[in-house]
Sequence to fold (423 residues):
Amino acid sequence: MTTMEYERVFSLDDEALKCPYEHFKRARSECPVSRSEVAQVWVISDHEHVTAVLKDAVTFSTKQMLGPQVAEEWQRMIDLAAATPEGKEKLGPEYGTSPRKVLLFADPPEHTRHRKLIMSALSPAAIRSWEGRIRETAQLFVDRLAEQPRVNFVEDFANAYTMTVIADILGLPREQVPQMLKWAAGFNSMVGNPNLTQEEVDALVDVRLGFDLYFDEQVQQRRKEPTGDLISRVIELNDAAEEKLARDDLLQLFQLVMVGGSDTSSTALAKMIEYLAENPEQWTELRNDASRIPLFMEEMLRTESPVQGMFRYVTKDVELGGQSLKQGDYVWVSLGAANRDPKVFDDPDTKNLDRKGTPAKYVSFGGGPHTCPGTALTRLELRIVLEMLTARFTGVRFTGEKPASKKSFLFFGPAELHVEFLN
Fold:
């Protein structure tokens, strides 16, 4: 078979990263389970086989869902942090001994326990209780935008807004948001980018240690004096559980809440604003009828998935899509390609706000037992801020060149987005 176009995505070609899903089209139609020589993985690119893999957590393990290279670098970062004098002194001899296979890095039955813990903390009642605070946060950022309408939307608005929401939910001071953004950027720099130098990986030790020291202190404080926030709730539920998460595993859980809870939402929001700058008539439609905003969100999440895919590890020999996968192989599950499968979505490349049943079919939030536990929160914070933006401003326009995408084949969104909001 000739070289598949998706190899340009795995090679981090700048033009290919602007529309990665386009480069999986031929694979999806001709050979939905194919082999990437660049990434050294099986690429799953149609909806049928993507959903089959996502549902089968026994055959397709998530323990290295960021890929083998990241898994090795991740462990090295933990080992180096644990070996520092500060790590040994303040976090003790057990620090660094856990493999930190929590939530999306765990398989059932461990994953089932972790998911029950976080879903109890992220209950519908809890999310409803946060809505007022999220509205206050969104209003604050929109008011700032009215005073300074020309911004780099990614840095000045999307990242800061979504991380502030997470800080409030975790019960952390807003003054901590800049540091949280630095930690998140450090962790994310490893994902979907195989070109990090060893020097860059070693520098991330400070990220690992700084995060762990801070959140360990927060955990200890909440055990002494619970404050009703998400950290307190998780600690309470974990301490009452028969099988408790170890200290390092709790730190990993809070890292996933911080990074996953902010980055997916901020990337999705930035991509939505980029699209609205390109399609001003869509802004007008949403401004005239706010009830269309949730429909717009769902179509954007389908067609421009902020997470384009994820790895799975093959635990046993298996046939899939006419291919023989061996134990020890890796597969790349292309969520972005599955979301545009014409066998599932009519006219899949069109953003049709009247499309029926979209959320039940697309896989932007994963699928099977590993469906993202924060989907309701993501939808809530996106809807609130889009309602406020479209009500406050008459439109948005680019003030620079069309933005480049993030240097990652996993995360999909603009690296920067220089725009002006119009009154």
